[in-house]
Each structure stands twice: as C-alpha cells, then as structure tokens.
Amino acid sequence: MDRRSFIKRGEALGLIPFLPAGIYFKEQRIKPHNWDGYDFGPPPSITDRLEQGPFSSYGSDATATGNYIVMATSPSREPISNFGMGMVTYLCDEVGPPKAPDGELYNELEALVKYGLGDKLYLRVDWRDIQNRKGRLEFPEHWKMSFDLARQYNKRVGIRIQLMSPVISDHSVPNFLQDKIPFVKLGKTDQIGIPGKVHYSPRFDDPNFISAFKELDDLLADEYNGHDLIEYVDTYMYGFWGEGHSWPFVGNPFPDDKTAEETSILMFEHQAKNWTKTPLLTNTQPDYNNVGNSEVLDKTIRSHNWLRTDTIFIEPEQVDALSNRPPWVGATIENGFSNGKPDRIRMIDGTPRTEMIIQHIKDVSPNYCSLWNWHDLSSSNLKRYFDQYPNEIDRLRKCIGYRVRPSWIWFCENDEHPYLILGMVNDGISGVPGALRIYLTDKEKTFKTGGSLDPGYPLPGKVRQVKIPVPKNKDWQGLRLKAEIEVKGVRYPVIWACTSLNKDGSLSLKKNL
User: Fold this and answer.
1) DSSP element (H, E) containing 431
2) N or C: which terminal CB in the chain sees fewer CB atoms within 10 Å?
3) Within 10 Å of residue 448's Cβ, how many Cβ atoms?
4) Domain total in the chain
5) Mean pLDDT of 87-96
6) Whether pLDDT at 264 is above 60
7) CATH number of the domain that 456 lies in?
C-alpha cells in the first residue's frame, strides 16, 4: 500500500484531513547522520571528579613523582551481574506469559526467573493489561507473580507497555478509552501479526488519547520511577510494540508528518519528565512511517537515556547508532533465540542461526541481550538450545556490558598526601552506561574517600588512569577498593571484574608485585 492510497483510505473514514508539512518543517528535521563523532551534547554531570592524568614521573613537569607499582589484578573469567548490564530473561512477550496448565503459571514463571543464564527479567504487556479504568492501574496476576519472584531471587526487571500490537485480536488501548478516540484502518497483511487481522491505529494525536496516555505514564512513574526492582523502562511510542513504526503499512494515521513528529516528541518528553531516576530505552527504528523517530532518538541521547533494538539483522543506520553511541549510553538487543527443536535450529553455512545472531550482537557492544524464545516462553526451551549449543551464549555472558577492574595500582609517596594511581580497564564490550565511582574504605568502614570517573569510562581496550587519595594515618595495604555506577543520580554497587574479591564485591589492596 502506497502513502497516497493510505491517505485516501483515512479521508474516506473522515479521520485524516491531509495537510502537507511545510518547507520549514522539512528543513528542521534531523537528517540521517553518522553517529561516530556526532555532537550529542555533554555527558551526564558528575560530582567529585577524580584527577585522571596525565601522571608523569620525571623532570620539571612531573605530576606523580615517587610512584612505584605495587599491585596488579587478574581478570575474572566468570559472568558478572551489575546494574546496567546482563542477559535478560523474558517472562512475558506480546502474546502473554508462558503457557501453563491451570494453577501452574507461578511454577513456569519461577523456572524462568531462577534459570541460571539470566541476570535480569523482562515484562512486555499491552496497555489494556494493566489499566481497566481511568485513574488507577490494575496489574495482571503474571505481573504480580513476576515481581514477587524477582524480589525472591534478587533479579531486577525491565518493562514495556505496548500501545498498539499486531498480535492480539483487540486493540491494545483499554476499553474505557476505545469509544472516546478515533481509529484509522491500516489494512491486512500476512507479513506481521495475526494472519487475516484487519489492523487499526489509534489517533495518537487525539486529545483524549494524549490525556489518557499522560495519565498512564504518570501512574506508572509514581509506582516505578526509582523502584528498587526496576532496571529500565522502554519508551512506549507510536506503532506496533511501541517501536515507532507500523511496518509494512506505508504512511501514518496523523493529519500530516509535522503533527506525527510533534506528537512523538510530546510523548517522549512526557516520559523523560516523569522517569527522572530510571533509564528509558528508545528503539532505534528508522523513520519508515515519518513519525519523527530521528528527533526522538536525538532527544533520548541528549537526555542521557538509552537505546534498544528489536533484532540484530537490521538496517545499516541501526547498526551505526548502536555501535557508535556515546559510551555513557546503554543499549539492549532483543532477538528471538531458537528453542532447540530440530525444525527451529535453521543452519546457515553449518552454523545455527542463533549462533550467528549472538556473534553479531557482540559486534555492536550492547549492555544487555535477550534470552527469549519468541512467542514460546519456557525455561525448557532455553535449556534445550543451550544444552546443544552452549559456547556462543556462554562467551556472550562472560563479556556483555562493562567489566571494570583496577589492572595496575601505583602507590605514590612524596611531601604531599599519599595517594594511589589506578590503571582502570574494561574487559567487557561496552562503555559504562553512566559514571563509575570508586572509593577507598577500611574493613570497619570508618572512612570513605574517592570520586567519579568521566561518564562512560573506562572504555574497552583502553586504560583510564585515576588518582585516589590515601588518608595520612592509614596504611594503603589492607584498605578496600569499592565501586558504584551512578545513573540519573542513583548509585548502584558494582562488583569488580577481577579475581580474589571479598564477599561484597570489593577488592582488598595488598602488595603483590
């Protein structure tokens, strides 16, 4: 279906008075650009910035005289679970939670939650699933069970609310709203969703829709912004699954492209205003339907929120955005994996398709990757595939996200305060999605001294040196080095990615060189 026939269909329904966008609007739109080196504005602000060099030893310009290497660390070879990284087990996708006999859903969910490959959990539901009436949220049983299990097994949760879905028979918007807003008929297609379904889009720009959308987001943010179990929230935008598109249908249900873009920006900015403590993830979907995706992505980066994509074999511009995003911006890859059954392995040149997916996921340096059997969720499916082909998943688990450690440690003695210089490295595949904070303390926690690295650092493959003071009355040996990550003003503990750690994830300092 071309855009002209699409618009005529909308006019026939009396819903789309087509008004072409003006030249001014077209000139103001953000055009496709390379992300490498692009100016997205400053990184997140930090406090207590640690000195990060240069540290020179000799001559009149020396800044670190009297230093000598005292300690080195060895990288851990095991998976590490920190905030801002990990493998994400899906507990609910667009067709619902795992299929289970009556009374057995809790057991099915628990088997997924405690499955050892996953660090984080994920829930994807339709708007109608969590709100049945104006002014309050009412969560389904599988949502409540999932959060209870998340707390029991100490795993954090990512969530997404879909405003429009091609894989349910009814609208995603709740019943109380359906008779108050217009819908635009998109048509039928066998390329997406339920075969034979007639797809409709709500008019996202309708005042009643916008009012209800804002209320939904306000209620969710009141409940979950900064919640101790929430890892991140996907932005819920126009189109199927909230991803900013209604492919394969051409055009959009708005009066004109300018209205589409303004509506998308309004929806994103409302979410950005509400979610002040929790990262938002916006899909990198190219602007197939001319709804302002490039502008929303730009605002996502500038507001220090994160990215996501729904598959790895995608358009060039999505690969560029993911792999060249600013280092302090997190990213997650959602891609369905095989369930391990013979008819779902799909060999490509002797390699299972899922293995190829995982190999290419590593190429774009994500923080998260889905453990997701598309529309067929169960721990037995995950296990069946992993038991046959463990190597690529295991490699990804041991490198995904950031894996930071002090590789070199120098001690400096001079007429001033004693201090340590740390050569910080990152054995993972992504930057730190926020600011890494490091500090010294003792076993009794009688003092704490330290501060922040620049956001995103240390980068994979590079060393970032930092200076951290040692109290004059303390021997550096026996002190403990701890780490945190700060994201949107909230600090989370970080486990070092090295061997010989204490139970709390800290490193005891000692001379080993």
Assistant:
1) none
2) C
3) 10
4) 2
5) 96
6) yes
7) 2.60.40
User: Alpha helix locations (H) across 44-131?
Assistant: 105-113, 127-130
Whether the model pTM is above 0.90:
yes
Residues making up the chain, counted from first to last: 513
Tokens of 427: 């054995």
Band of pLDDT at residue 6, cut at 50, 70 and 90: very low
H-type alpha helices, 38-120: 105-113
The pLDDT value given to residue 13: 37
| 160: alpha, beta or left? (left if phi > 0; alpha if psi -120 to 50) | beta
Per residue, the 3-state secondary structure of 46-60, as one string, reads CCCECCCCCCCCCCC
Q: Structure tokens of 235?
A: 């932005």
Whole-number Å distance between alpha carbons of 462 and 381: 38
Task: Find the CATH number of the domain harbouring 269.
Answer: 3.20.20.80
Q: What is 280-298 written as a DSSP string?
A: EEEE----TT-S-HHHHHH
pLDDT tens sequence across 303-334: 999 999 999 999 999 999 999 999 999 999 99
**Are 316 and 351 in contact, with CB atoms under 8 Å apart?**
no
Clarify whether residues 366 and 231 are in a common domain.
Answer: yes
Residues 338 and 372 in one domain: yes
pLDDT of amino acid 10? 41
- 371: helix, coil or strand? strand
Evaluate if residue 354 carries a pLDDT over 70.
yes
The bridge status of strand 404-412 relative to strand 419-426 is: antiparallel
Alpha carbons 29 and 27: distance in angstroms, whole number: 6
d(CA 276, CA 189): 39
pLDDT at 270: 98
Q: Which helix (H) or strand (E) holds 383?
A: helix 379-388
On whether residue 28 sits in a domain, the answer given is no
d(CA 104, CA 202): 36
The burial of 323, by beta-carbon neighbours within 10 Å (0-12 exposed, 13-18 middle, 19 or more buried), is given as middle
Long-range contacts for 208-211 (Cβ within 8 Å, ≥24 apart)? 208/177, 208/180, 208/181, 209/173, 209/177, 209/181, 210/263, 210/266, 210/267
β-pairing verdict for 435-441 and 419-426: unpaired
pLDDT tens for each residue of 188-202? 999 999 999 999 999
**392 and 414 in a common domain:** no
CA distance 145 to 309: 27
pLDDT in tens, 20-74: 444 445 556 888 899 999 999 999 999 999 999 999 999 988 899 889 999 999 9
Considering only CA atoms, which of 306, 375, 340 is closest in space to residue 124? Answer: 375
Q: Which residues are within 8 A (CB) of 384 and not within 5 positions of it... i.e. 6 or more apart? A: 339, 340, 341
Token pair in block for residue 282: 């916006």
Tokens 């996502």, residue?
Answer: 300
